[in-house]
Amino acid sequence: MIASNIFRWIGSLFTDFLFIPFDMLRKGDFNWWSSNIINWLFLVVLLVLFAYWMKESRKFLKEGTEDRA
């Protein structure tokens, strides 16, 4: 019974709260830039994380601690 309630709470969290911006975009009359702002934010976050990953990879490669199995 507890696991069922946890999954119901997670479903309610997504459908009732986290998807509100997407519902507003779907129902509203917005231009292309405002409709895709969430996609641009995801892209920026991914590019920052990729740059960090490449920087750390270069650091380990210079130190010689990279696993070369």
Précis, in short:
By secondary structure, this protein is mainly alpha-helical. It has helices at about 1-20, 20-25, 30-35, 35-65.
Please tell me what the overall shape is.
Answer: flat
Radius of gyration: 20 Å
Number of domains: 2
Q: SS-based structural class?
A: mainly alpha
- Give helix % range: over 70%
Order of helices and strands: HHHH
Largest sheet: none
- The end-to-end distance, rounded to whole angstroms, is 46 Å
Number of helical segments with 4 or more residues: 4
Poorly predicted sequence stretches spanning 5 or more consecutive residues: none
- Work out the strand percent: under 5%
- How many runs of DSSP E, i.e. beta strands? 0
What is the mean predicted local confidence, pLDDT?
A: 87
Could you please describe the fold and organization of this structure?
By secondary structure, the chain is mainly α. It has 2 domains: about 1-30; about 30-69. It is about 80% helix and about 0% strand. The protein contains 4 helices and no strands. It is flat, with a radius of gyration of 20 Å. The chain starts with a helix and ends in a 6-residue tail after the last helix. The model has no long low-confidence stretch (mean pLDDT about 85).
